[in-house]
Amino acid sequence: MVGGALGKIYRNGEIIIEQGQTGDSMFVVQGGRVEVLQNSLKGGLQHLAFLDSGDFFGEMAVFEKEVRSATVRAAGEARVLRIDKKALLTRIREDPLLAVNLLKTMSHRIRHLNEEVARHRKTHL
After folding, report:
1. CATH entry 2.60.120.10 includes domain 8-123
2. Strand order in the sheet with 78-84
3. Cα 27 to the chain's mean position, in Å?
4. pLDDT of 59-100, one tens digit each?
């Protein structure tokens, strides 16, 4: 997304963003792997997904004025680039295809969540 920029290196288990925090930036995994977690109703954290190099997260905070919906931490050493809202919007103006790719990924995530909800309902009816 931001060619040539190097992100911060996070150690295994280090929190990158935390559920409930406010935010105005998104993140791109440049190397390694991160884990997406959400607070469980039973307490503790529930695993949602692993994200690898090229994946992004935290984009909802750029487009909405809501708090972070999940916690993301490094799963092993990971290099992660932070992109603030202003830089992202500038980049989208320069390359509108970037917005299309973001929307495709977000749409895929929503579809996956809908499928998970449908499966959950079937097993709990």
Report:
1. yes
2. 8-10, 78-84, 25-31, 56-57
3. 7
4. 888 888 889 999 999 999 999 999 999 998 998 999 999 888
Single-letter residue type at 109: R
HSE value, Cβ hemisphere, 13 Å, CA-based, for 113: 8
What single-letter amino acid sits at 94? E
Tokens of 6: 């190097």
Q: How is residue 38 written in tokens?
A: 């959400």
pTM given for the model: 0.80
Confidence of residue 106 (pLDDT cuts 50, 70, 90): confident
- What do you get for the CA distance between the two ends of the chain, in Å? 43
Upper half-sphere CA count for residue 44 (Cβ side, 13 Å): 4
Task: Identify the CA nearest to 110 among candidates 45, 60, 63.
Answer: 60
pLDDT tens-digit map of 37-48: 999 888 889 999
